[in-house]
Write a structure and sequence with these properties.
The chain has about 400 residues and is of the alpha+beta class. The chain has two domains: about 200 residues, Aminotransferase class 4, branched-chain amino acid transferase, N-terminal domain (D-amino Acid Aminotransferase, Chain A, domain 1); about 170 residues, D-amino Acid Aminotransferase, subunit A, domain 2 (D-amino Acid Aminotransferase, Chain A, domain 2, Alpha-Beta Barrel). Strand 13 and strand 14 form a beta hairpin. The longest helix is centred in the middle third of the chain and has 16 residues.
Length: about 400
């Protein structure tokens, strides 16, 4: 039994052979010339009544409400096909679907913003498309062409444009993902893969109030990723592996968890879902260098550019956790912040360990943190000029 979307008129998946077409490295290949994916918007999709949608958009929260449509495509050894924008609906999977057993899946996260003139723009979707392709290669999944990724986002937002909220930092959060939907228990790259994009209106991460610094628990026992592993890929297994450590952080009264490297347990890597930055006393911004175990965040690279635009020196290098601790004590580390798609830029109030608490500055939102965050959100929402060509118009 293959996967299918419970949508009237949706094409039935193609039965998969015992073994997919693969490259010499065992990674799925299309087997035919690529077909342009149009992601045409289907007709007759039921829509939530306007009054109900307005009620959701008044207080969207994060990740709990979803739009009327989703984008969909399926890969088999014959290539990509069965694409379209269809009703957001449950999917049916065989209990033997490979993703349920071997976690062969990847995902992305990006946002669309409505500007004051009513137009809707995505922030750096091409960067997400490139990272999605890199993650797919690492997980032995077929690579979705980057233009098809962007097209799927464009078409979904056009179908659900009424779901894009207005005001402040409100946005439409977009979640593209790909998973092994083939019904087969053998351990090999799947011969059927399903790609979906769903969308969810999102309010400000901080609820429209003051930006609140988060406390960080330093994991003593757990590692997020190891050399040669999947740390640089955006796949669910990395996040699942962080949940026990995140629960430990909560048990110790902290908001998030920070991980050290898996070899020496000394070098700062990242939080469960965000990259870290340190503002030094000379104004330099330092962030842990990409090592194959750290996710190359789109917000991270944006912050590096914005910091440089604001006149700061930026460094990508290894950061010893002792430098974090001692820098807080000496004043060398003036501010610490985390960044990611959901919260954009979040000040870090304290690093917490058993018997120790390290606070940078006064533990509040630092001047540099606030300035970087303001500039980034101003670009995203159209309040500042986009000098780097990061915005992509959707509607």
């Amino acid at each position: 039994m293959a996967s299918s979307t419970e949508t009237p008129g949706a094409p039935a998946p193609t039965a998969a052979p015992d073994a997919p077409a693969t490259s010499a490295a065992g990674v799925p290949t299309a087997g035919h010339q690529p077909v342009e994916l149009a992601f045409e918007i289907g007709a007759g999709v039921p829509r939530l009544p306007e009054a109900d949608r307005a009620e959701v958009l008044a207080a969207p929260g994060f990740g709990r409400h979803f739009t009327d449509h989703m984008a969909r495509a399926v890969w088999t050894p014959a290539g990509w096909g069965q694409d379209g924008v269809v009703a957001h609906a449950p999917i049916t999977l065989s209990p033997a679907a490979a993703v349920l057993h071997y976690a062969q899946e990847v995902f992305e996260g990006l946002k669309a913003y409505r500007h004051d003139d009513g137009s809707v723009w995505a922030f750096r979707p091409e960067a997400n498309a490139a990272r999605f392709a890199a993650s797919a290669r690492r997980l032995a999944l077929p690579v979705l062409p980057e233009d098809a990724f962007v097209r799927s986002v464009e078409q979904l937002v056009r179908a659900d444009v009424d779901w894009v909220p207005t005001g402040g930092e409100n946005s439409l959060y977009l979640r593209p993902f790909m998973f092994a939907s083939e019904s087969f228990l053998g351990v090999r790259p799947a011969a059927e893969v399903t790609y979906l994009v769903i969308a969810s209106p999102a309010g400000s991460y901080f609820g429209g109030g003051e930006i609140t610094p988060v406390s960080i628990w330093l994991s003593q026992e757990y590692s997020r990723a190891a050399p040669g592993g999947t740390g640089a890929a955006k796949c669910g297994g990395n996040y699942a592996a962080s949940l026990r450590a995140q629960a430990e952080a909560s048990e110790n009264g902290c908001d998030q968890v920070a991980f050290l490297d898996a070899v020496e347990h000394r070098w700062v890597e990242e939080l469960g879902g965000m990259n870290l930055f340190f503002v030094m006393d000379d104004g330099t911004l330092v962030t842990p260098e990409l090592s194959g175990t750290i996710l190359e965040g789109v917000t991270r690279s944006s912050v590096l550019q914005i910091a440089a635009d604001l006149g700061h020196r930026v460094e990508e290098r290894r950061v010893d956790v002792a430098e974090w601790r001692e820098g807080c004590e000496s004043g060398r580390v003036r501010e610490v912040f985390a960044c990611g798609t959901a919260a954009v830029v979040t000040p870090v109030g304290a690093l917490v360990e058993p018997g120790r608490r390290s606070v940078a500055g006064d533990g509040g939102t630092g001047e540099v943190t606030a300035a970087v965050r303001q500039r980034l959100t101003d670009v995203q929402t159209g309040r500042a000029e986009d000098t780097h060509g990061w915005l992509h118009r959707l509607v």
